[in-house]
Write a structure and sequence with these properties.
It comes from Geochorda subterranea. Belongs to the class-V pyridoxal-phosphate-dependent aminotransferase family. Csd subfamily. It is an enzyme of class 2 (transferase). It catalyses: (sulfur carrier)-H + L-cysteine = (sulfur carrier)-SH + L-alanine. Helix 3 runs parallel beside helix 4, helix 10 runs parallel beside helix 13 and helix 11 crosses helix 13. It is globular, with a radius of gyration of 22 Å. The chain is 38% helix and 16% strand. It has 13 helices and 17 strands. Strands 4-10-9-8-7-5-6 form a seven-stranded mixed sheet, with helices on both faces. The termini are far apart. It is an alpha/beta fold. The model has no long low-confidence stretch (mean pLDDT 96). The chain binds 4'-deoxy-4'-aminopyridoxal-5'-phosphate. The site of 4'-deoxy-4'-aminopyridoxal-5'-phosphate (PMP) has 13 residues, from helix 3.
Length: 412
């Protein structure tokens, strides 16, 4: 077991000074996480030693590359509790994974009498693909209501399912804005009783808490490597085998075929059917190393560490009278907020001048911004390498914002 308290040492990019010579305080891991040395080295080692294309060659390097790529698939499957590695499809990221399900699973099946249930807290990547499906098929989009604290109104979810038309329920495990952790198991059970398939956006949960597809009961799970210490350009769609096998491929090309004729082709098995062309091999190897690193910390301990940090952040920010915090108390490791009277981009800019990296904007969740009745928020997000001192640095930097703008200034 690796120690969370000292793991910060493993992340080279965290040890630098930024704007004005301030030490970097990185509070933007919900956008993308930093990478431990073991991930950076695994990817470099692959290029230095094993680099070859996968599956097609018989030479030594091709075999090593294939073994490394398939080893990463096995590691990912183990990490999410998936018994069958063949159900792990490597894609570019959560966005591609969600588009693949929407386009390949839902679009051919749905028609004007069908409904897709979503929530208003979805990231655009779990909204727009479903809007496209709705436009192509005539299916109707329905939304679960939100309660004032930013959790889902489960009775409204029940009512939607009672209509008997819902074929797909797609929602996020953890909100990238509110931090809300949705009750997946309960929602999946209810969806299945209504005959719907459950698509889970795990982009913000898989990196931060134990995720077990069998226990959660979802039918598809989408997530991105770069938010879980892995490289960019790699992500995962996991699906139940019978569903994956029933889906036509989205992209045609090499690797995804069994037999190609001039006028038609037959397709390869799952997962290769969905991995047309040369896949992101080195990135998969890096993701495998990221999974091993997270396993060495223990996902229960990752979650516990973030729970402590976010509780401390809520306490400290809650003491600032002109800071408005969004979302429930029980949440994942992030806090979205606004400073009364100061535009979130100004807040983020002043924080950056003190070395504190946060994100400001709509966080690819414009419908949620409308629900919150704000144009944007500031978001501080935590990971294993953050400490209570990082929260203190955030609070100190926010004091500077208040000093510059005058605490409690009237909103612009
Ligand atoms: N869903 C959620 C909840 C996210 O936070 C993100 C990334 N911000 C995505 C999906 C999309 O991930 P990616 O951009 O890596 O495809």
């Amino acid at each position: 077991m690796r120690c969370i308290e000292t793991c910060r040492e493993d992340f080279p990019a965290l040890h630098q000074t930024v704007t004005g010579g301030h030490p970097l305080v990185y509070l933007d891991s919900a956008a993308t996480s930093h990478k431990p040395r073991s991930v950076i080295e695994a990817e470099a080692r692959f290029y230095q030693r094993d680099n070859a294309n996968v599956h097609r060659g018989v030479h030594a390097l091709a075999e090593r590359a294939t073994e490394a790529y398939e080893g990463a698939r096995r590691a990912v499957a183990r990490f999410i509790g998936a018994p069958d590695p063949a159900c792990v499809i490597f894609v570019r990221g959560a966005t591609e994974a969600l588009n693949l399900v929407a386009r390949s699973y839902a679009q051919p099946r749905l028609g004007p009498d069908d409904e897709i249930v979503l929530t208003p807290m979805e990231h655009h990547s779990n909204l727009v693909p479903w809007q496209m499906v709705a436009q192509a098929t005539g299916a109707r989009l329905r939304y679960v209501d939100l309660l004032p604290d930013g959790t889902l109104d489960l009775p409204s979810y029940e009512r939607l399912l009672e209509g008997g038309r819902v074929r797909v329920v797609a929602f996020t495990h953890q909100s990238n804005v509110l931090g809300t952790i949705n009750p997946v198991r309960e929602m999946a059970e209810r969806a299945h009783r209504a005959g719907a398939v459950v698509v889970l956006d795990g982009a913000q949960s898989v990196p931060h808490q134990p995720v077990d597809v069998e226990r959660l009961g979802c039918d598809f799970l989408a997530f991105s490597g770069h938010k879980m210490m892995g490289p960019t350009g790699i992500g995962v769609l996991w699906g139940r085998r019978e569903l994956l096998e029933s889906m036509p491929p989205l992209f045609g090309g090499g690797e995804m075929i069994r037999e190609v004729g001039l006028f038609e082709s037959t397709y390869n098995d799952v997962p290769y059917r969905f991995e047309a062309g040369t896949p992101p091999i080195a990135q998969a190897v890096g993701l495998g190393a990221a999974v091993e690193y997270l396993e060495s910390l223990g996902m229960e301990r990752v979650r516990a560490h973030e729970e402590r940090l976010v509780a401390y952040a809520l306490e400290r920010l809650g003491q600032m009278p002109d800071v408005r915090i969004y979302g429930p108390r029980e949440r994942g490791g992030l806090v979205s907020f606004n400073v009364e009277g100061v535009h979130p981009h100004d807040v983020a800019t002043i924080l950056d001048q003190q070395g504190v990296a946060v994100r400001a904007g709509h966080h690819c969740a414009q419908p949620l911004m409308r629900w919150l009745d704000v144009a944007a928020t500031v978001r501080a997000s935590f990971y294993v390498y953050n400490t209570p001192e990082d929260v203190d640095a955030l609070v100190r930097a926010l004091e500077a914002v208040r000093a510059i703008f005058g605490a409690g200034a009237t909103p612009r």
